[in-house]
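Supplementary Methods. Inverse-folding protocol.

Structures were first reduced to a discrete structure-token string of length 222. This string, shown here, constituted the complete conditioning input.
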């Protein structure tokens, strides 16, 4: 089944909107209910994010591939699964959807639509964490696409659930989500000045995953 580019872009917009709405909204709710306990707040942010990824990939995967992430789109463009125009439009839809997702979450909790992030997330350990997180995400996607394509949604959801806890950065692993989260002062936010470092690390991690797994998954004796 082939869908028009317009439908694919709407799918990428809606999927990224709902993803960021879940990340930010669950972050607000978790922070309100945790009484200052950061571990409980993080758990309350993690479970909805992993769960919604499974749902969104199963809904929108057949339409657009369910990238919801410019790092994923970059890799599939480099693999020549997308042409340049489509890749640019995908990334644009994802970023717009991410910002819209933050606004929707804020409005549900009666916050101002946009509040520039204030939470500092910077430094070598944070950048390295984002590189590792995005490398692992793309490893998950490329591996599942190769061997178990019908289970990609579960693989991604489970990976992000785990990566929230084993990375120092809590695994943004997504340039669009990072941009969207720079517009919230909630538990899940990031200061806008720290956002570029995360995005660069994420793109590097994605490209490294492509190089490694292009070699690893070749069905050759040597």
């Amino acid at each position: 089944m082939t869908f028009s580019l317009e439908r694919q872009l709407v799918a990428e917009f809606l999927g990224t909107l709902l993803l960021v709405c879940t990340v930010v909204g669950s972050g607000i709710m978790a922070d309100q209910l945790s009484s200052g306990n950061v571990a409980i707040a993080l758990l309350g942010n993690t479970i909805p994010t992993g769960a919604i990824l499974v749902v969104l990939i199963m809904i929108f995967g057949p339409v657009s591939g369910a990238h919801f992430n410019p790092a994923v789109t970059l890799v599939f463009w480099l693999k020549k699964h997308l042409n340049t125009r489509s890749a640019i439009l995908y990334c644009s839809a994802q970023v717009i959807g991410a910002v819209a997702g933050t606004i929707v979450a804020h409005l549900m909790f009666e916050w101002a639509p946009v509040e520039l992030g204030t939470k500092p997330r910077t430094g070598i350990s944070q950048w390295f964490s984002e590189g590792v997180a995005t490398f692992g995400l793309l490893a998950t996607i490329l591996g599942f696409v190769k061997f178990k394509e019908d289970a990609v949604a579960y693989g991604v959801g489970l990976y992000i659930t785990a990566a929230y806890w084993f990375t120092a950065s809590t695994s943004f692993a997504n340039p669009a989500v990072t941009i969207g989260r720079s517009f919230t002062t909630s538990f899940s936010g990031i200061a806008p000045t720290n956002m570029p470092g995360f995005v660069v690390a994420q793109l590097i991690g994605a490209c490294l995953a492509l190089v490694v797994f292009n070699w690893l998954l070749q069905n050759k004796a040597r």
